[in-house]
Task: structure prediction
Amino acid sequence: MENKKSFILYSDIINIVEKLSDEIAGKLFKLILDYVNDKNPKTDDLLLQIAFEPIKQALKRDLIKWKNTSAIRSTIGKLGGIKSGKKRSKTKQNEANEAIALKLKQNEAKGSKRKQNEHDSVNDSVNDSVNDSVNGREKKDIDIINNNNIYSWINNFSIYKESTKQTFMALEQDKEYIAKLQTFYPNCNIITSIRKGYSGYWGQEAGWRIKIKAAKKAIKEHGSYVIDWKTTLLNNLDKSKVYYTKEELRLQMQ
Result:
């Protein structure tokens, strides 16, 4: 267990230890300490072997989890450091969306027919849902969406896709968040799973439309909406999780 300075000894081993004599229990404890300090201990005492085996297997499992977490943190460090896991303020979201909107406007000015079609398609999808009523609460909701750059992504898939891409890249560098996901999915490659979630669903129109629906509902009920990507990924990682291969796990244990 090189470079690991501590280990967990579970309380339920009392069920084994209390059946041993004090002499054998003492030898068992010394055997455990030799094992976690990489001394490769051996014993010819059959009773001691039987008592030590379940403890040894538990230590192995804990070591695999620790190495998986360490590997993920090392990868994140190489990507350029740790970004704060705090939720961005609405002001920062507004600035980011304005920058993306400006970039897309410049591209459209150069004659990007595809993006213009996307824009038209989005406007149609938004307008279809509100054409039947343009007064009262529904009109107020439309005004909130159309007059607030925070919600510009609702009317333009390209803005949504670019903003989501930047957010997912930032999440990959959030060490605390990645470590949290790793504890829930110890045998999964969290970085690869996040990328799969983006490219396979959340960065596509299907994921965008889900978020539009959630935004409209929240705006109608509460007057505002902010996408919580951390919670979204945590609740949906089962759909995009990618496991480490047996070879990758073997290499991590070396």
Q: What stands out?
A: The chain has two domains: 11-78, 90-253. The mean pLDDT is 76. The CA atoms of residues 185 and 241 lie 9 Å apart. The radius of gyration is 27 Å.
